[in-house]
C-alpha cells in the first residue's frame, strides 16, 4: 500500500500545484460572502495573505462537525487529531501539539489545562462555532511565540457585533449510533435599538463508543467491540449582550461549561474486570455499565469552567486610527480526576487575559496592527497524581504586523517580544524568559489565475510548567507518575527557549472550474524540547527527562477542487487533498506521534436544496513512530453525507442531514494518540440530525 500511496500522491500533488488556490477554500463552503479572517485584525480574506490558512465555515464546518476540536479539523491537510479516547481531541498542526499549538476562543486563550496533559480536553465547543480559523506561519506571532506550531481560533457569536434586524436563531438535534450520542443545541440572537443579545445552550450525552474488534488486541481481558468507560456528558450555557453604535460596540458574555467523561481502561494504569455482554455495557447508563466493578478502578474527569468575556471595537477614532480592539477574558477552570468515588487529583487554572489591538491607517503605504497582550494564570494540581507544583505564570507580549502593497505584490513584516515569568511555590526564585519572534512574507497576485506566497519566520517559545517543574524537588523513589503518558516525567529548570526558523511556499490557482493550493514547508528547530528516555525505572515505570536538541520538520499539503460539470439537473465537484509530514530529532531519531502520510478525495453533488458527498482517505503506515513507540498500520476511511434544505417561510429554513462515518468499519489506530494501542478510533457510525433556523 505504501508504494501505491506514493505513486498516487505524486500526480495528485503535481495536479494541485498547476491548478492550485487562493488558500484552503472549496465550493462546498458558503461563498456568497467571502470569509473575513477574524484572527488577523487587518480586514483580510484568505486570498489576501501569504500565510497558510485553513478556514472551516458554512456547510463545510457542519459536515466536519464533531464533539472535539481535534476531530473536527482532522481531515484537513496538515491537521490531525491527538485523541485520548472519544472525549478528548487536541488539534495537531504539522506534527506539533500540546504547548506548541494555541487554541483560542474568539481570539483569547481557551484557558484550560489541555496543554499540560494529553488526557485533558480542550474547553471549546466546535458545534457552537460560526467558523474555525487555523493559522500557520508569520501571523501566529500575533498570539505569542508559544504558538510555534500554529493557532486555532474558534469563533462564535457569544459577544454580538451587530444588532440583527429581527429575532434569529437555530435549534438543532442530532444523534449518532456509534456511541448512542444525542446532542441538542439552541441559539438565539436579537436586539432593539443599540442593544443586542445572544443566548445559547448545549446538552450532549453519550455511551461507550463502538469499535471493530478488541480495544487492546494484546490484552486478553480487553473489551471486544467497544471501549469501556468512554461515555460522557456535557452541558454549556452562554449569555451575551452588546451596546452597538454604527460599527463600534462594547459587549460581554458569560459561559458555563460542565463536562464529565471517562478515560479508557489502561490509560491511567488501571486494570478492570469487564462485563462480557457488550450490549448491556454499551446501552445502559453509566452507573449500570460499571456495576460490579471496583470503584477505584474507574477513572473519570469532571470539568467545570466559568468564562467571562468583554470585547470592544471602536472604529475611526481619528483619521490615523482605523480601529481599536479590546479583549478581556477571566476564566475559572477546574477539574477533578475521579477514581471511583475518590478524588485522585484536582487541577485548577484561574486566569485573566487583556489584549489590545490598534489598527492604524496607511502610513507611507504601510498598513498594520500594533498590540499588547497580558496574561496572568495561577495553575495548580493537588492529589496523588500531582506532578507539577502550584505556579503563577505571567505573560507579557508586544507585537506589530505591517503590510505594504505595490503593484501585484503584498509584503508583510512582523515582530513580537514576549516576557514569560513562572513562579512555582516550591522555589524561591522565578524562571524568566524573553523571546523574540520575527516574520516576513511576500504575496504575488495578478489578474491571472495564479498567486504565489512565500513566508519566512523565526519563532521562540519559552518552556512551560511541565517542562520546567515536573517532579520538581522529588527524589528517586518518590517521583509521581504522569499517568496520561504512563511514565515519570522530570522537568529541567536549565532549559532554554526553543527557536524555530520556518519557511512556507504556497502556490495558488483559481478559475471558474478549479480552486486549489499546494504548500511546502520546512521548520528548523534549535533546542527543541522533548522527552528523553533515561533508561531508568521506578516501580517498573519508565523515567523520562525533558531535554533539548535540534530538530527538523518538513512536509507538503495540498487540496484542489474541480468543477466537473452538470448532470442529472445538478453539479458535480471533485476535491483531491493530502499531506506528508516528517519530524526528525538531531540524534534521537524520529519525533514520536507524527501523523501518517494521507491522500484523499471527495465527490460532491449539488442539486437545488439537495447536496451529497462521498469521501475516502487513504492513510499510510506510520513506520517511523519514534523511540520506544509502536508503529501503526495504514487504513482506508470512507465517509458520506446528505443534506436537504426546506424553506419554510421568509428567513426560516429546515435542514435535515445524514452522515455515514467510517462506512467500512475500518480499525483505525491514530498515530498521534497516546492510547493508540488500547483505544482505536470509533467504528462505523450513522449520524442523523435536524436543524431549524429562523
Cα gyration radius (Å): 24 Å
What do we call the CATH topology?
A: Maltoporin, Chain A
| Count of domains | 1
**What would you call the shape?**
globular
Strand content range = over 45%
Largest sheet: 22 strands, antiparallel, barrel
Amount of helix: under 10%
- Give a count of the beta strands, DSSP E runs of length 2 or more: 34
- CATH superfamily annotation: TonB-dependent receptor, beta-barrel domain
The number of helical runs is 6
Q: What's the rounded overall pLDDT mean?
A: 88
Structural class by helix and strand composition: mainly beta
Segments where pLDDT lies below 50 for 5+ residues? 1-32, 270-296
- What is the CATH class designation? Mainly Beta
**First CA to last CA: what distance?**
49 Å
Name of the CATH architecture: Beta Barrel
Give an account of the 3D structure.
The protein is mainly β and about 700 residues long. The protein has a single domain, classed as Maltoporin, Chain A. About 5% of the residues lie in helices and about 55% in strands. The chain contains 6 helices and 34 strands. It has helices at about 1-20, 60-65, 70-75, 280-285, 285-290, 465-470; strands at about 55, 80-85, 90-95, 100-105, 110, 130-135, 150-155, 170-175, 180-190, 195-205, 210-215, 225, 230-245, 250-260, 300-320, 320-340, 340-365, 365-385, 390-405, 410-425, 430-445, 450-460, 480, 485-490, 500-510, 515-540, 540-565, 570-585, 590, 600-605, 610-620, 635-650, 650-660, 685-694. The chain has a 22-stranded antiparallel β-barrel. A 5-stranded mixed beta sheet has the order 1-6-7-4-5. It has a two-stranded antiparallel ribbon with strand order 2-3. Strand 13 and strand 14 form a beta hairpin. Keywords: Cell outer membrane, Membrane, Signal, TonB box, Transmembrane, Transmembrane beta strand, Transport. It is found in: Cell outer membrane. One of its GO terms (biological process) is siderophore transmembrane transport. Belongs to the TonB-dependent receptor family.
Amino acid at each position: 500500500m505504501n508504494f501505491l500511496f506514493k505513486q498516487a500522491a505524486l500526480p495528485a500533488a503535481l495536479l494541485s500545484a498547476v491548478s492550485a488556490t487562493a488558500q484552503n477554500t472549496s465550493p462546498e463552503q458558503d461563498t456568497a460572502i467571502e470569509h473575513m479572517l477574524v484572527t488577523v485584525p487587518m480586514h483580510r480574506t484568505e486570498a489576501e495573505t501569504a500565510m497558510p490558512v485553513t478556514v472551516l465555515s458554512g456547510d463545510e464546518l457542519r459536515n466536519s462537525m464533531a464533539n472535539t476540536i481535534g476531530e473536527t479539523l482532522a481531515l484537513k491537510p496538515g491537521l490531525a487529531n491527538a485523541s485520548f479516547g472519544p472525549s478528548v481531541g487536541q488539534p495537531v498542526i504539522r506534527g506539533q501539539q500540546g504547548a506548541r499549538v494555541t487554541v483560542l476562543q474568539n481570539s483569547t486563550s481557551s484557558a484550560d489545562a489541555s496543554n499540560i496533559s494529553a488526557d485533558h480536553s480542550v474547553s471549546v465547543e466546535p458545534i457552537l462555532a460560526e467558523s474555525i480559523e487555523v493559522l500557520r506561519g508569520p501571523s501566529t506571532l500575533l498570539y505569542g511565540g508559544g504558538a510555534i506550531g500554529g493557532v486555532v481560533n474558534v469563533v462564535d457569536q457569544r459577544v454580538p457585533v451587530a444588532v440583527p434586524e429581527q429575532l434569529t436563531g437555530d435549534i438543532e438535534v442530532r444523534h449518532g449510533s456509534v456511541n448512542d450520542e444525542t446532542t441538542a443545541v439552541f441559539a438565539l440572537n436579537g436586539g432593539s435599538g443599540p442593544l443586542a443579545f445572544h443566548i445559547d445552550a448545549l446538552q450532549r450525552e453519550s455511551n461507550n463508543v463502538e469499535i471493530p474488534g478488541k480495544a487492546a488486541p494484546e490484552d486478553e481481558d480487553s473489551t471486544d467491540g467497544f471501549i469501556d468507560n468512554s461515555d460522557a456528558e456535557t452541558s454549556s450555557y452562554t449569555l451575551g449582550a452588546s451596546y452597538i453604535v454604527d460599527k463600534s460596540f462594547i459587549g460581554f458574555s458569560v459561559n458555563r461549561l460542565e463536562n464529565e467523561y471517562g478515560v479508557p481502561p489502561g490509560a491511567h494504569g488501571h486494570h478492570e474486570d469487564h462485563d462480557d455482554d457488550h450490549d448491556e455495557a454499551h446501552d445502559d447508563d453509566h452507573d449500570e455499565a460499571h456495576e460490579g466493578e471496583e470503584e477505584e478502578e474507574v477513572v473519570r474527569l469532571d470539568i467545570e469552567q466559568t468564562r467571562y468575556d468583554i470585547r470592544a471595537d471602536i472604529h475611526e477614532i481619528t483619521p490615523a486610527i482605523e480601529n481599536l480592539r479590546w479583549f478581556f477574558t477571566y476564566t475559572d477552570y477546574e477539574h477533578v480526576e475521579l477514581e471511583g468515588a475518590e478524588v485522585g487529583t484536582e487541577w485548577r487554572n484561574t486566569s485573566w487575559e487583556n489584549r489590545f489591538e490598534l489598527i492604524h491607517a496607511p502610513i507611507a503605504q504601510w498598513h498594520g496592527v500594533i498590540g499588547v497582550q497580558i496574561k496572568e494564570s495561577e495553575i495548580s494540581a493537588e492529589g496523588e497524581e500531582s506532578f507539577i507544583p502550584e505556579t503563577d505564570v505571567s505573560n507579557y507580549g508586544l507585537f506589530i504586523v505591517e503590510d505594504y502593497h505595490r503593484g501585484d505584490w503584498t509584503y508583510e513584516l512582523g515582530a513580537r517580544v514576549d516576557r514569560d515569568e513562572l513562579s512555582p511555590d516550591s522555589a524561591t526564585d522565578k524562571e524568566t524568559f524573553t523571546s523574540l519572534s520575527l516574520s516576513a512574507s511576500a504575496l504575488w497576485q495578478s489578474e491571472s489565475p495564479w498567486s504565489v506566497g512565500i513566508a519566512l519566520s523565526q519563532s521562540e517559545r519559552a518552556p512551560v510548567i511541565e517542562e520546567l517543574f515536573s517532579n520538581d524537588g522529588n527524589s528517586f523513589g518518590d517521583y509521581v507518575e504522569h499517568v496520561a503518558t504512563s511514565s515519570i516525567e522530570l522537568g529541567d529548570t536549565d532549559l532554554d527557549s526553543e527557536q524555530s526558523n520556518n519557511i512556507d511556499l504556497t502556490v495558488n490557482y483559481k478559475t471558474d472550474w478549479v480552486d486549489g493550493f499546494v504548500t511546502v514547508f520546512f521548520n528548523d528547530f534549535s533546542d527543541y524540547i522533548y522527552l528523553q528516555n533515561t533508561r531508568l525505572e521506578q516501580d517498573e515505570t519508565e523515567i523520562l527527562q525533558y531535554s533539548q536538541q535540534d530538530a527538523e520538520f518538513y512536509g507538503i499539503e495540498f487540496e484542489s477542487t474541480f468543477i466537473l460539470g452538470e448532470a442529472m439537473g445538478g453539479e458535480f465537484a471533485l476535491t483531491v487533498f493530502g499531506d506528508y509530514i516528517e519530524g526528525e530529532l538531531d540524534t534521537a531519531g524520529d519525533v514520536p506521534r507524527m501523523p501518517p502520510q494521507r491522500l484523499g478525495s471527495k465527490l460532491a453533488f449539488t442539486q437545488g436544496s439537495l447536496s451529497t458527498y462521498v469521501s475516502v482517505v487513504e492513510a499510510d503506515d506510520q513506520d517511523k513512530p519514534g523511540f520506544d513507540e509502536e508503529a501503526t498500520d495504514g487504513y482506508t476511511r470512507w465517509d458520506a453525507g446528505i443534506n436537504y434544505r426546506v424553506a419554510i417561510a421568509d428567513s426560516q429554513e429546515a435542514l435535515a442531514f445524514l452522515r455515514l462515518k467510517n462506512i467500512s468499519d475500518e480499525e483505525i489506530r491514530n498515530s498521534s494518540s497516546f492510547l493508540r494501542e488500547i483505544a482505536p478510533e470509533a467504528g462505523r457510525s450513522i449520524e442523523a440530525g435536524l436543524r431549524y433556523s429562523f
